[in-house]
Model the fold of this input.
Amino acid sequence: MRVDVRALGACNRLAERGAKQAAGALSDLTGTDLAVEVTGASVASGEDLAESFAGRESIGVSVGLRGGLDGEAVLAFDAVNADALLSLLPGGQSMERSAVTEVGNIALGGFLDGWANYLGKAIDMSPPRYFEADGAAVLPDGALAGDGVFLFESRLDATTTDLDFSIYMLPDSGPFRDLIVGKTAPAATAGGEANGGTESTAVSYESLSTFSSLAKQGSANAADNIAMMTGLETSVDVSRLRFVPLADVPAEVGTEPHAGTVFELQGEPSGYLAILFEESSAAAVADAMLPMEPDEPLGDMAQNALCELGNVMTSGFIDGWANVLGTSITHSPPEFVHDIGASTISPLVAKLSERQDYGFVIDTAIQTEGIQARCDVYALPDERELARALDRLSES
Amino acid sequence: MTRSLSDDRPDEPADRTESGGDAVADAEPAAVTGGAVPDDPGRIKVGVGEFAVTSDDAVLTTSGLGSCVAVALVDERAGVRGLLHAMLPAGEGRTTAVSRPAKYVDTGIDSLIGALDDAGADPRRLEARVAGGAEMLDLTDAVGPRNVERVGEVLDAAGVPVVASDVGDAVGRTVRFGPDGRLVVRAADGFERAI
Done:
């Protein structure tokens, strides 16, 4: 079974369309303007997703699907964010249920309309049902049983008030997966301008799941390396592989000042890796690594410390991938960055955009005990080289 | 509309608290707008690879410019302004330039001038202000300067004079383009100047 990563791009656009409709509906309901900042698709095993939803309460709606797509689709908010959002409603919390139901209906409707048009077949959608779910119970029925699930996550941002939250769309993976495969398998080998004519971006669904586990393995290795180097207990918070439009990546990093390191990767896959800390986290980590307090928070000494940290983290990441993929990957020396977060990553995104429109982003938050610090790792591999390496993996 | 609502109900998932079934009567989706999304009545946010045009008092903003370049065009007499946030120098001949022209400097400026024309601006009266195009990293080969160079060439070919610019260096920028036609450029350290 093969999935064309570019077809995943088409799905992502449908998800984004649903999210924009949801944002519009929420803006109307709350009188607060909301914009969709980023929409990404995650390909993860049910187990990984269950883990990332663990301890979270969600509210949302589910609809049953018949016709062009069978199964179930879910739209959910984190309950804690939904409270803040719904408190903006004129009717207050009492409006919650009907508001969530309406917004869910509109968002899923937008998403499914797109699919129905794409398929040229009607999709019957059962009336939306409101639910409150603990942890993994938010996932559609098929998600945990199968070998993977697609999750579309959109981050919505209200710039006039301090509110930003995510909505999730979870089409049940089985039928959805068949759809991507059935619809795009021929296209996947047909080539095109952006893929250099002959190279395919189709990879087996199983290897996408494998890559998703790789992301996790890489993060764990990186955390181990930090622990070894600093003696500080380090844990990996979240680790998920997401498929996002490259142009959205800078918005995802945001406009707050960040500091960290970036690396160029060579080998299979090549690409870039950026390790970014919010300013205060960067200073706290550097401080913890240095024998004495630095003269200035992010001066030369701190920069050296962060570069060294970046080196061990990056090695941890790519060693894990190279081992599993059976390839050789090397990285450039670290380059220190300290600027508006979005600005630091924009040249990497621009460079990759010359060849592709979407990127795999690996979100990893690594937390070091005793100090308040977390960082995000953006791994941006060349999609063709990644597809090739994954393909070999599935053949072996 | 191909989607339709039916009375079918899927089986109850075991551990969810369910209620209702009260379908919202055929709620019509809100209009979807491509490109930039207005985020308050007086402010229009322009994302990476997007442009926006206004003929009223709205402030056009774009943030997190690194190697990307912002091109602000105004026809002061007509009171029409536009802002582009382009990522790469050349899109001509690429298929993605058709679906997302604003990703590229050349196709983006052409589209922006076209949209300004449609909004009542006279392309012969346009003035340009340019910001961004920084050399943020040694790792990536001069995307920023190539963007700036291409902006100069394309505007020159279109006969649009560049009246001010704040480009290059290794600094991130955020810009806002207000009704006075000035482009306010803010750097990461908070330093601001109007050009």
In short: The two ends of chain B are 49 Å apart (CA to CA). Residues 49 and 103 of chain B are 4 Å apart (CA to CA). The longest strand of chain B covers residues 59-65.
